[in-house]
Amino acid sequence: MSGLGDEQPNPIRLLLADDQALVRGALAALLALEEDLTVVAEVGRGDEVVPEARRTAPDVALLDVEMPGLDGIAAAAALRAALPACRVLMVTTFGRPGYLRRAMEAGASGFVVKDTPARQLADAVRRVHAGLRVVDPTLAAETLAAGVSPLTERETEVLRTARSGGTVADLAGALHLSEGTIRNHLSAAIGKTGARNRAEAIRVAEQNGWLLGE
Amino acid sequence: MSGLGDEQPNPIRLLLADDQALVRGALAALLALEEDLTVVAEVGRGDEVVPEARRTAPDVALLDVEMPGLDGIAAAAALRAALPACRVLMVTTFGRPGYLRRAMEAGASGFVVKDTPARQLADAVRRVHAGLRVVDPTLAAETLAAGVSPLTERETEVLRTARSGGTVADLAGALHLSEGTIRNHLSAAIGKTGARNRAEAIRVAEQNGWLLGE
DNA sequence: GACGGCCCCTGACAAATGTCACGGTCGGGG
DNA sequence: CCCCGACCGTGACATTTGTCAGGGGCCGTC
Description:
homodimer; Rossmann fold; Arc Repressor Mutant, subunit A; 2 domains; 10 helices; 49% helix; elongated
């Protein structure tokens, strides 16, 4: 377990971002057991990541994807831009192929799903800090298989808006488009996802991580 | 903070059940910091709860609702039946009103959402162990407001099956009912939930926790 | 400049969905 | 006993949804 009196001279400084306070605190406790790691910041919203990182200058940031304010991927990009020295390790619930792709494009160094064994987390942090990449091989394979989103920008937007479950008229109003156009976009999305329903199309797109912001 | 050499004589014995190994391990680390608590078992599936509890005889079981094998509510009921001495504290991601109701009916002593501050968890465990009830007051109010599910058994079943997103014909085939009957049940569910869609009805029912098993 | 991709719109059509009125079975409670 | 509610089914109907064939406008690239 943790050293008693011998503090590490230069421990790895960590920032934790997760919207669930309980798991955030629990992760902090888990990582604090390692004598070469120290948690210097905790935030619960994506838009707090960069300001807090500026204040505390962490070496590695552990970011959840699902967060209010700003999703973890966007936060990762912003963080890379603001503090290039800080590495990013995504820690997320869902192993959506698209998430991994977007995270890597955003400059993340690692991607860990929340059902990996707890003991491996500290090692992942160390690897990332050392400049290595950490990726679940299974997930990487899926990502290659799923490929880039076939949906056009408008189609994703329509699909994302349709997630809440409104009628075509609602969508048309919300997006300032004609109902026919909405139907066309939906039809295209249904075709591209191989679904038979609007609902199915949404499910498929969601599972592949094709419905992220922007 | 943990005591160094002075182990508590009779620490509270805990069982942890959560399907995400990482948060499970993290929670274990968090709770292990308290000198009057000790984690004696960890499981990742609902149907492993009772066997493992039989083996380790915990005082308090922390159960997640979303788990493979057997959902946390059912696991709680089974655990109460098998080991009445063991108290149950539900720890879950979603504060669905129906979840709380069902958990209480299943004999749980406490209900904590995963975005409560980490420091409060140990206290919740102690309270539950002492025979008290632990419930988020906001959630309790919502539960009262949402009331019991207005859906009849068949309607819930149809709605739950419809979640996967199939056509009426699919549902009819899966449930061995006529398409007309399926449509009737769906229509009734849509009316009762105040939705305008099948999709909306599913969302509402899900948010209220009306779609749980059995 | 021609081409292709994406975008927006229209209109029309078939299919799926949601609603309604109706009948019938079964079990429990007044 | 009779009524009520949940349940299953039918058939007909209006609405919504999904599809298709067009028509433009706006970039980019070849």
